[in-house]
Amino acid sequence: MNQIQLDISIVKNLQHGNMIRNHLPESINLHITKSCNYHCKFCFAKYSFMQKELTLNQWLGIIDEIASNGCKKVNFAGGEPTLVPFLPDLIEYAKKKGLFVSIISNGTGISKNFLDRCGIFIDLIGLSIDSSNMSVEKALGRAVRNENSSTPYSHVKVIREKAKWIHDYNIPLKINTTITPLNWKENMQELIRELKPIRWKVFQVHKIFGINDGFFKEFGELTTEQYYNFINRHQELNPQYETSNMIRDYYCMITPDGRFYQDTNNHHNYSDSVLEIGVLNAFKQVAFSEDKFNQRNACYFRELLKSKNTKLWR
């Protein structure tokens, strides 16, 4: 089965049911803040009807509840999660609850002080980079807000530096890349080989109506053929690919104010607050495809737990 046939198969499985599980998935993304020091134009981690972001104690309670109901892995995300002062407390607490702990970051908050404090509790760090070209990254919005330095900001330089530090601390590295009309023709093999991730996840840019429409108005649409052109060019690096269709109803995510949310039909759909009705009841209020979750190897972390030195992406 080729890649396009697999994509179609996954979508058909979603359309024929298996949308709701009666238990939590093994992997859950906790979006602990909407704040970010970048302004990525395609970002869809933005939320409607946001209430106040949760406190440390509220997040600790949620970690208790998801750990007791089937979750095995938490990924702290944002926004930019390293902007949250109590992120180290969450990381340590989740690890002591027996969970696999990862974060996804733009790299700006991955300091040596952060790694000194949190490194022993983190099982995986994900960094986001979409191009080896500094100007492309800047056009996409991967740059600090209100930059005043006389030296041009380079997200590529930041990622190269932080990836080296992560390896120095012997923490497995994952790279996330989003393919857009600006970078689909690029060859990133040299950069990815340099960064040495154990897993390279490559997304097709994904539209959420009312959230990131402006990006598509500015740069246009990326076709599936263009996306697979990029994937095929990098096939020997075994990128873990996800088209826009695959992303729908596949991730299990909680917003900064404590609601499950899901992308269904290119719109965000939200549950009631988990603080009010509990995680299991809230989870049942959003769509989720267990088939898609399993077919996309979302439980790869089990292999990583067996041997953190295994080069899964080779």
Care to describe what's here?
The protein is α/β, with parallel strands linked by helices and 314 residues long. It has one domain (3-175, 246-300): TIM Barrel. The chain has helices spanning 3-15, 56-67, 87-96, 112-118, 134-140, 155-168, 189-195, 213-219, 224-233, 244-247, 274-277, 279-283, 290-295, 301-306, and strands at residues 27-31, 73-77, 100-105, 124-128, 173-179, 199-204, 240-242, 253-254, 259-264, 267-273. A ten-stranded mixed β-sheet has the order 7-6-5-4-3-2-1-8-9-10. Helix 2 (56-67) runs parallel beside helix 3. The radius of gyration is 18 Å and the shape is globular. It starts with a helix and ends in an 8-residue tail after the last helix. Residues 1-20 and 309-314 have low confidence and may be disordered.
